[in-house]
Automatic annotation (TrEMBL):
Identification of the protein by name: ADP-ribosylation factor-like protein 6-interacting protein 1
Native organism: Moschus moschiferus (Siberian musk deer)
Alphabetically ordered keywords of this record: Membrane, Transmembrane, Transmembrane helix
Classification via InterPro entries: ER_autophagy_membrane_reg
Domain of life where this protein originates: Eukaryota
A GO cellular component entry from the record: Sec61 translocon complex
Chain ranges passing through the membrane: 42-59
Alphabetical GO biological process terms: cotranslational protein targeting to membrane
Amino acid sequence: MAEGDNRSTNLLAAETASLEEQLQGWGEVMLMADKVLRWERAWFPPAIMVTFFLLLPGLNQHGIISKYIGMAKREINKLLKQKEKKNE
């Protein structure tokens, strides 16, 4: 029984190490995103808006915006139906 536990522990450790290695690069991205969200620099908000407007046509072309708008509408409708049921 101990041998099986040891194997599963080793497998879990290997998977954890692999996941940590894969996520290593995201640390820098998260730090920059945190700085942007906190607006640590005066030029962040205008830079975000310019970047968003540059990406907007591409996102719309691939249907990403339409997809998320549809998801939002479905969620709103679901919440409205739940609210109606509570009011009945």
